[in-house]
Design a protein that fits this description.
Pfam families: S1 (PF00575), Spt6_S1 (PF21710), Suf (PF05843)
Oligomer: single chain
Protein name: S1 motif domain-containing protein
Keywords: Nucleus, Phosphoprotein, Repeat, rRNA processing, TPR repeat
Structural class: alpha+beta
Number of strands: 46
Subcellular location: Nucleus, Nucleolus
Radius of gyration: 43 Å
Organism: Plectus sambesii
Length: about 1250
């Protein structure tokens, strides 16, 4: 928490942004917590120009700031970090420098106090050298660094080594003062521990303080049978020994060494001290197509790329024939790969046996030297030659032409050169050929002038040379060729390609996605490639072909297109420049072709094609297009126009949020992650549609969810509603605030009210988010939602809708149009239903001719002549006011009729109990009944209208007043609404279904009820049409909902259709959904319909198509054979599976078939299969567990007891043994007796005792 940070607190922070005078830092706390690191307070060795966003560093708090919006001032210089005495233990963090006051010395170290009652411990090795042996002399306070603080301990761990504190020179913490791994030093024995480990002291020298050196027993020159006494003789205190530095412990300032003779004689002891160019012997460990994995001196890992396995490329392509595991070979070190902790070597004999100069850097002293290198790239102007330690030089083509024969060296071939010049600053080297004619190129006469090349060092793969060199020959797929870059692709199908011209008149193209294996975010690889290579030759691999109609007008300057022999359409080659594909030796479309499998959540590089205000159109490759909606762009809220930020050709790594396989379209996102919508937290939203009368604003959120804004959520003053709506623009991005999630409609209701973000904004109409905020007789303003025969409904807030009673004039009714602002009084609130009474109508701004508001109140309208006329017309139409009703009632005393409360007719807020007041109104109006008749108290059940029409219940003697007839109409309306909102009741007509579907078009459950509705009436064709309509309306990203519809349609066809219609529907389903999922569902449908033969055919088809993609295909087929009483076919299927699937999956498949044998086949067969697995993998505990469960459940329980005995005798981990003992104990408690339970407990106790003995001995 920010409140716990105090001056001196040390913590890790990352750079959020770089400013002119420093950097804004992220402390990983709340978004309101801000911190600043001044440029003058940066850590030593780091400048503001070198700092990058996201860089982390250790900092301390200088100032905490004041007020609510405080900014923490930070420092990266430890000279400013000193803990105050009043800081509590919970606030002391690792990295803080504290003042430690000695308390009590011990043999292992020293107890100290750091102030405020906090104690700490300093290990003897972490004390300054002068106090390690004389801790009692340490009485003055010293400075120390907190190294750890455990929550379950009251004591801190601190380090007082001067090199770790290093207030004056922070660089001391990361270096060992000139001592490096691999150095040979002379150290003096200072201590021999009882565990036969030796501590040495490295004496101080000029510019270096003394260091502690440590060696374990196995690192010492000592016999295996040597005793402690002999060791003390050999390593007595004070004796000097020559040692080799193997590693170091930075926090202990401790060097790890060895004095073994073999290690002292080695050329290197780790990757860190490997010297490029050294000749070493390596032992082959693994041979792979990409290269050879080796070990040097039994512990240093090395790798020989395929290109460096032999001098000739032909030999390099068959590594397994020339190299065997355990073979010892001679190599030279190329460079150290510290990222993978290995060295990269070469086995080229031309380099291993070379007697020339070893080039490991751009050293001017090498000028005139003769050296051996290898070709990594060929160009028209010359070849690029590489040496050791990634040093490269350029050999111009004019030197090659002087040689006889004048051949171009092949990629990877050794070459002897003469160094002509060296530019150390720009790291450039010019090469020539030696003067003697017999010492030049080690040429391979089989190589061609057109040999294809690439940067082999970066890819590590051998590029196979092309054999299609006959001029004018037809291009072949997956072969290598040399082509000329013409310029940008002129076709309309893709603007992100480079046009190529091949010898012989053929043309091709390279898409931007095939230029490299990786791309820099925001770069434009297409334009960069064209700028460097236009009218130049490049080496490409053909990965496919495509045809297009020739354009009517052809550029005369471009070469003519060669026609395909089969038709008149030109054929173009799809090519690649990816190093991984150029080096791929397998000719498979799945490896070399365009990516065609995209999954939700996958991150892929995409290339900008065009952009506009709606978003960015991109391409993943020529076949797959995509779009990034503006709301899903980076910093969408700050991006006024996508076209200003995303230029054609730029590459970005986007996350897939939707896949349309049918049209090969991708829905993508460039946002860092899906935004999490939380009530009250601001979130950007894009306006997608806006409709008026009634107002409805639809938006899209960054995570793909829908949102809406109603009139009450838009402004703080409803009178300004029209002007606010006029200022909205489609596709614009707005900063909104979520209010509530509308569960029935699956969308968020958000707000644009200024008062939410600006607390000082004036609020005329408060935001009502719940019914509890309203009170009876409260006066509020709202916005009319609808005005129809069912009544006038008013928006009071998000999901809060009230209904006006009918006490308004015809003139007011004309004004009560959607989006009109009204003033109302809350007359009743019953079970969340709100009854309103109109007080006045405010004309909307669009209706005001003089730009002034005019309110029509109920009192003023009553005295108006026009109102009287309208009232008369209203009465002639059958509507009367309360006064007319009272005059016609057959009673002596006119009682005031209960006020009609009005109702919110939203489905989620409807309840029958809301009609209590209507029941009371009806009771008061039945004046013809006897006063002595006892009237029952109305309940929600009695308020539900009966099935008979209301008019039939009245007799001629009991003439009803107009008020009563109005109530009857209300009750009839209630009955209709009850049916509409009852989600548990099946709709009774297609119109009712359409009404429900309009509110939830993606609900597959509702669509299936609709389909079943037509099937119940035997209208199969209508059911089919409804299913097709569902597939069109359900969003393509709702894959599960669409799959449910496909399942329903397949079930419909198998029950009511023909074989032909079922086949067509199945083919459509395979194309419109996940094919494998559809196949599996079709098998289940056949099985449920008892169509065994059709299920067999479907499963066989699945095996042909998906046997390599999903193991479940084999298992489903086997289970089908078992369930249908054909166990032998299942066993034969298992043998087929073991021949087709990788060996890594054999255990899983055999285990599943063994379980099938126990459930539906022969338990002895299952036992045989489990035993075959355990004979090869006796420690595979998951197989043991399943085996035991199958025996207990499907065989005889007593047969499980020997299995428990076997598994508990294995050498397994303690947690696994605990699992099996517990499982055995549970088994015996259920199937055994007291004796067997006791035996299990005794065996478990014995196992624990054995483990304790082993731990004691070790």
């Amino acid at each position: 928490m920010p409140s716990t940070l105090s001056v001196g607190t040390v913590l890790i922070a990352s750079i959020q942004s770089i400013e002119d005078k420093g950097a804004v830092m992220d402390l990983g706390l709340s978004s309101q917590t801000r911190a600043f690191l001044s440029a003058t307070e940066l850590p030593p060795g780091i400048s503001l120009e070198d700092a990058v966003e996201g860089q982390t560093m250790l900092v301390s708090v200088l100032e905490t700031g004041r007020g609510d919006k405080r900014v923490f001032q930070l420092s990266g210089k430890l000279s400013h970090i000193e803990a105050a005495a009043d800081i509590g233990k919970s606030d002391l963090m690792p990295g803080m420098i504290v003042t430690a006051q000695p308390l009590k010395p011990t043999p292992q170290g020293l107890f100290v106090t750091v102030g405020n009652g906090v104690k700490a411990f300093v290990n003897r090795r972490h004390l300054p050298a002068r106090y390690r042996d004389e801790k009692t002399k340490m009485v003055k306070p010293i400075q120390a660094v907190i190294t750890y603080a455990q929550a379950n301990s009251n004591i801190l761990g601190v380090n007082a080594l001067p090199e770790i504190v290093a207030l004056a020179n922070a660089e001391k913490r990361t270096v060992f003062e000139g001592v490096k791994v691999g150095d040979t030093v002379t150290a003096t024995v200072s201590e021999v521990t009882p565990m036969m480990m030796v501590y040495f002291e490295l004496p101080a020298e000029q510019g270096r303080s003394s260091l502690t050196v440590f060696a374990r027993r196995h690192q010492l020159q000592l016999d295996k049978e040597a005793t402690a006494a002999k060791m003390n003789d050999l390593y007595s205190v004070g004796t000097p020994h020559h040692c080799r530095v193997l590693d170091y412990r930075m926090m202990d300032r401790l060097l790890i060494v060895s004095n073994k003779t073999a290690l002292l004689d080695q050329k290197m002891v780790s990757v860190m001290d490997a010297k490029p160019g050294d000749k070493v012997k390596a032992t082959v460990q693994i041979v792979r197509p990409s290269g050879i994995y080796v070990k040097i001196y039994d512990h240093i890992r090395g790798f020989i790329p395929q290109l460096h396995s032999a001098d000739k490329p032909k030999l390099s392509s068959q590594l397994d024939k020339f190299f065997k595991t355990g073979q010892e070979i001679k190599c030279r070190l190329l460079y150290s790969d510290e990222v993978h902790d290995r060295v990269v070597l070469t086995h080229k004999q031309g380099l291993v046996e070379s007697k020339g100069a070893i080039v490991t850097g751009y050293d001017s002293s090498l000028v005139g030297s003769i050296a051996d290198g290898f070709v990594v790239k060929t160009m028209e102007t010359g070849v690029l030659v590489a040496f050791y330690n990634r040093v490269k030089g350029f050999l111009h083509a004019r030197h090659l032409k002087r040689r006889t024969p004048a051949v171009t060296p092949a990629l990877g071939s050794p070459i002897r050169v003469k160094i002509l010049s060296v530019d150390a600053e720009s790291e450039k080297m010019q090469l020539g050929l030696p003067d003697s004619p017999d010492s030049g190129l080690k040429a391979d006469v089989e190589l061609s002038k057109e040999s294809v090349s690439d940067d082999a060092e970066s890819s590590g793969e051998l590029v196979k040379k092309s054999t299609d060199r006959i001029k004018g020959s037809k291009l072949k797929q997956f072969n290598l060729y040399t082509a000329t870059v013409v310029g940008p692709w002129t076709g309309k199908d893709s603007a992100l390609c480079v046009e190529l011209f091949f010898p012989g008149g053929q043309r091709g193209r390279i898409h931007a996605s095939e230029l490299a294996d990786s791309y820099t975010e925001g770069a434009n690889p297409l334009s960069d490639f064209l700028a460097k290579n236009t009218n130049k030759k490049v080496h490409v691999k053909v990965i496919g072909f495509f045809k297009k109609k020739p354009e009517k007008k052809q550029d005369k300057n471009k070469p003519k297109v060669k026609k395909d022999e089969k038709n008149d359409q030109p054929r173009f080659a799809e090519c690649t420049l990816k190093a991984s594909k150029l080096g791929e030796t397998k000719k498979k479309k799945s490896l070399l072709g365009y990516d065609d499998i995209f999954r939700h959540g996958q991150t892929v590089p995409v290339f900008v094609n065009s952009s506009n205000d709606q978003g960015v159109h991109v391409e993943a490759n020529p076949q797959w297009k995509g779009k990034v909606s503006r709301i899903r762009l980076q910093d969408a809220a700050q991006t006024p126009s996508a076209s200003d930020h995303y230029a054609p050709g730029q590459v970005y790594h986007a996350r897939i949020v939707g896949v349309d396989k049918k049209h090969k379209r991708l829905e993508l996102s460039l946002a860092a992650k899906d935004s999490v919508v939380r009530v009250g937290e601001p979130i950007s939203a894009q306006l997608t549609s806006l409709s008026r009368r009634p107002l409805n604003i639809a938006l899209e959120l960054p995570n793909g969810q829908r949102a809406t804004i109603g009139p009450c959520e838009l402004v703080d003053n409803y009178s300004k509603l029209d002007s606010a709506v006029d200022g909205l623009k489609k596709d614009a991005i707005y900063r909104t605030y979520p209010i509530v999630y509308d569960e029935p409609k699956g969308r968020w209701i958000v707000s644009l009210r200024p008062s939410i973000s600006d607390k000082t904004a004036s609020i005329k109409d408060k935001l009502i988010t719940s019914v509890e905020q309203l009170k009876v007789n409260e006066r509020v303003r709202g916005v009319v939602y609808s005005n129809d025969d069912e009544g006038v409904f008013v928006h009071l807030g998000p999901t809060i809708i009230g209904r006006l009673n009918r006490k308004y004039t015809p003139k007011q009714k004309e004004l009560l149009q959607p989006d009109a602002v009204v003033t109302v009084t809350v007359k009743s609130i019953i079970d969340g239903k709100i009854g309103l009474q109109l007080l006045g109508v405010t004309e909307t701004q669009s209706e005001q001719s003089d730009s002034r508001k005019r309110t029509v109140s109920a009192s003023s309208a009553a005295s108006d002549d026009s109102f009287s006329t309208a009232a008369k017309k209203s009465r002639s139409a059958g509507f009367e006011d309360d006064e007319d009703v009272d005059e016609k009632m057959d009673t002596k005393v006119a009682l005031p009729a209960p006020t009609d409360p009005g109702f919110d007719w939203a489905p989620e807020k409807y309840a029958p109990a809301s009609f209590a007041t209507i029941g009371l109104a009806q009771e008061s109006s039945m004046t013809t009944r006897s006063k002595k008749e006892k009237q029952p108290q109305p309940t929600p059940a009695t308020l539900v209208p009966k099935e008979e029409p209301m008019e039939e219940t009245a007799t001629p003697k009991e003439k009803k007043t107009k008020k009563e007839r109005e109530i009857e109409r209300e009750k009839a309306l209630i009955k209709t609404e009850l049916k509409m909102v009852d989600r548990e009741r099946d709709p009774e007509s297609a119109q009712e279904f359409d009404r429900l579907i309009a509110g939830a078009p993606n609900a597959s459950e509702l669509w299936m009820r609709y389909i079943a509705f037509f099937l119940q009436s035997s209208d199969v064709e209508k059911a089919r049409q409804t299913a097709d309509r569902a597939l069109k309306l359900i969003h393509y990203r709702e894959e599960e909902e669409r799959f449910n519809i496909w399942t329903a349609l397949l079930n419909l066809e198998i029950a009511y259709g023909t074989e032909e219609s079922l086949k067509k529907t199945f083919e459509r389903a395979v194309k419109g959904a996940d094919a494998l999922k559809v196949y599996k569902q079709m098998v289940k449908i056949y099985q449920n319909a008892k169509k065994i033969e059709e299920a067999d055919n479907m499963l066989e088809e699945m095996l042909k198509k998906f046997k390599q993609e999903d193991l479940d295909v084999w298992l489903l087929t086997g289970q089908h054979y078992m369930d249908t009483g054909r166990p032998q076919m299942a066993r034969d299927l298992m043998q087929r599976a073991l021949k087709s699937i990788p060996k890594t999956n054999h255990v899983q498949v055999i285990s599943r078939f063994a379980q099938m044998e126990y459930r539906a086949g022969d338990s002895e067969q299952g036992k045989t299969l489990f035993e075959s697995i355990l004979s090869s993998y006796p420690r595979k505990t998951d197989v043991w567990s399943v085996y035991i469960d199958m025996v207990v459940k499907h065989a005889k329980p007593e047969e499980a007891r020997p299995l428990f005995e076997r598994v508990t005798t294995l050498n397994l981990g303690a947690h696994k043994m605990r699992f099996f003992f517990k499982k055995w104990l549970d088994f015996e408690q259920r199937y055994g007796n007291e004796d067997t339970v006791a035996q299990v407990k005794e065996r478990a106790i014995g196992y624990v005792q054995d483990m304790e003995e082993k731990m004691t001995l070790s």
